[in-house]
Amino acid sequence: MRLSRFFMPTMKETPADAQIASHRLMLRAGMVRQSSAGIYSWLPLGLRVLKNITRIVEEEQDAIGCQQVLMPTIQPAELWRQSGRYDAYGPEMLRITDRHDRDMLYGPTNEEQITQIFADAVRSYRDLPKMLYHIQWKFRDEVRPRFGVMRGREFLMKDAYSFDLDYDGARKSYQKHFVSYLKTYARMGLKAIPMAADTGPIGGDMSHEFLILADTGESEIACHKDFLDNNWLDGVDFDGDLSGVMDTFTGKYAATDDKRDPAQEAALGDDLITARGIEVGHIFYFGKKYSEPMGAKVTGPDGQEIVCEMGSYGIGVSRLVGAIIEAFHDDAGIIWPEAVAPFRVGLINLRAGDAACDQACQEMYEQLMGAGQDVLYDDRDERAGGKFADMDLIGLPWQLIAGPRGLEKGMVELKNRATGERVEISRESALARLTQG
Ligand code: ATP
Ligand code: MG
Hints:
Blueprint: H1 21-28, E1 32-36, E2 39-42, H2 44-63, E3 67-68, E4 74-76, H3 77-83, H4 85-88, E5 94-97, E6 103-106, H5 111-121, E7 130-139, E8 154-164, H6 167-187, E9 193-196, E10 206-213, E11 219-224, H7 243-250, E12 254-256, H8 262-268, E13 272-287, H9 291-294, E14 297-299, E15 305-307, E16 309-316, H10 317-327, E17 329-330, E18 333-334, E19 345-349, H11 355-370, E20 375-378, H12 384-394, E21 398-402, H13 404-408, E22 411-416, E23 422-426, H14 427-435
Parallel strand pairs: 3-7, 19-20, 19-21
Antiparallel strand pairs: 1-2, 4-6, 5-6, 7-8, 8-16, 9-10, 10-13, 11-12, 11-13, 13-16, 14-15, 17-18, 21-22, 22-23
Helix pairs in contact: 1-10, 2-6, 2-10
The site of adenosine-5'-triphosphate has 16 residues, from strand 8, strand 13, strand 16 and helix 10.
C-alpha cells in the first residue's frame, strides 16, 4: 500500500479526552474514530489489526474443533424471557421495539440464541459433543464507556458455546478452551494469566478470567511471580490430554480483586506480585442453566432424556487491539507484535520526487510484495522527520529507510521498531533479512 493513497488520518496533537496510551495512540494513528460514547468506526489501519486478531482467534478455535457460525446482533426478547434473563440483565441491555411493537434487543451475548438453535436441531446423544462459536458485535450500555475500544458500548467479541452429555465431557470442553486461550494470546505476543473468577450474571460454578498485566488495567490483581516468566506451554500437545496443563496453571495463585486471599498472599512472600490487569477473555461452565429452561436435551443410548451440559467462552476481540497497545508501546508510538501488525514493513522514501530514489524504492516495494510481505510504502513528498515520526507512531515491526546518499552506494537502513536497532546494510541483504523466516 502506498501511504500517499492510504486513508490514515494521523493526528499530531494528543486528543484531550483520551486518558490512556492505547486510546490516544489509536486516535493519533488514525485507527479508529468515535461515533458516539463507546461506539467507534474502524478505519483501514485499525481494521487490519482487528482482522489479524480475528484470524488468530478463528484459527485457534478451529484447531480445537469449535465450528464457526454467525448469529444476529438483534435478538427477540422472547428468547431471553425463556431463560429468565430479560428482566435480570438490567440497564446494560439495549432494548428496542420494532414497528409491530415487538420487544427486541441488541445482543450483549448469545447463550439464549445458540441454545435455541441447538435445541431445535439436535435430538440424539450421537450428536454430542459439539462446540460452536461466532465473532459478532455486541452491545452493552456500559455506565462508563471509556478507554476507547477497551470499554466500549459496541464491541467485537468471540463467544463460543459447548454442549456435552455429562460433567466429564463439559470439563474436557472447558479444558480445551482454557489451554487454547493461552495459546491464542501467546500468538499475539501476550502472556495472559488465567484467574479464578466469579460467574456474574451468566451464572455457574467453574469460571476463569484471562488477564494481561498493564498499569492501566481496570482490575487489581495478585499472582505468583512464575506467571510472568514461564515456559509451561512449551512442547504441549494440544491434541492430547490437557487436564495436566490446566492444573499447572490453576495450581499457582492468581486472583482478581474480588477473589484475593490475604492468607495465601502472605504465604507467598517474595513470590507474590501485585499489579493491574486487563481482562481479555472469560470462560464459564454453567451446566444446565440454559439447556434446562430452553429444552436443549437429547435422547441417550437407552432412550432416557439427557439435558445438555453447557459452557461459554468469550474473547474481547476489539478490546485486544487496545490491550496489545497497552502492552507494547513507547513514547513515540505503538510497537506491534508481528502477528497482529497492520503491515510488517514500512518503506520510507527519504527523497520522494528524486528519480533515482523513487525508482529504487519502487523496486524494493515490488520485491517485498512479490515475496508476500505486507508493505506500507511512504512515498509522500514530506520531510524526513515527519515520516520517521509517523512510522514510529503506527508501530510497524520493520522500517526500511532509503535515501539518495545511501542508495548511491546500494545501501539502505533497516530499523527494528521494538529494539530501536538501526543498521546500514546493502539493499540485497535488507531484502533477504525481511523475506527470510
Ligand atoms: P468486564 O468485567 O470487563 O466488564 P465482562 O466480564 O462483563 O467484562 P464477559 O461477559 O466476560 O465480559 O465478556 C467476554 C469478554 O468480552 C471480556 O473478557 C472482555 O474482554 C470483553 N468485553 C466485555 N465487555 C466489554 C466492553 N464493554 N468493551 C470491550 N470489550 C468488552
Ligand atoms: Mg468477564
